Amino acid sequence: MSMTHYMELLATNQPWNLLLFMAVPVILAETIAILELYLLFTRRMEGRARLVSRIAGIVAGIYFAGIIAYLIPHAVLPITQAGEWRTPVDVLAVGAYLLSGIPLVLIALQDMKLLDRRRPEASRMARHAVFVGAFLVLAHVAMIAGMLDPQVFGYAPPSMDGMADMPMH
Fold first, then answer.
1. What residue ranges do the domains of the chain occupy?
2. Rg (CA), the chain
3. pLDDT band at 1; cut points 50, 70, 90
4. What is the 3-state secondary structure (H, E, C) of the chain?
5. pLDDT at 167 > cutoff 90
6. 132: which residues sit within 8 A by CB, 6+ positions away?
7. For the segment 103-118, what is each residue's pLDDT rounded down to a tens digit?
């Protein structure tokens, strides 16, 4: 069995990569999603719940922008330049993961009042909810595609033949 690069990223350097690349962004996004539902159902657009949602939104967007800025030069470009993608499902998993950060960045910009500041509150909240939904859909696509074994789609892992003849240093 082999892994997508997405799953390999999460499995390497346990538990740190799992925490940094999965747990932190998902916990922040789930916090935003839960508070979004609360705010939409109660129509209380001010108060502690809105403040926590705004803080989580700003932190999530900035945090994920950092993830994107780190992974593109340190993972995506080297893998692409070396031609080491493990079938389109690997590209889908990594691509969906990186794309899921865009709605979080948009949420941060909105919560910092750099985006949609002139829109009516109802319109801002509607777009905020769409951004949350877009993150959740893309993150789940990344997780599902990331859990697939690339061999199912024709990937042949590098052969270990000849390794016994190599000198050990």
1. 5-149
2. 19
3. confident
4. CCCCHHHHHHHCCCCHHHHHHHHHHHHHHHHHHHHHHHHHHHCCCCCHHHHHHHHHHHHHHHHHHHHHHHHHHHHHHHHHHCCCCCCHHHHHHHHHHHHHHHHHHHHHHHHCCCCCCCCCHHHHHHHHHHHHHHHHHHHHHHHHHHHCCHHHHCCCCCCCCCHHHCCCC
5. no
6. 29, 32, 33, 36, 103, 107
7. 999 999 999 999 999 9
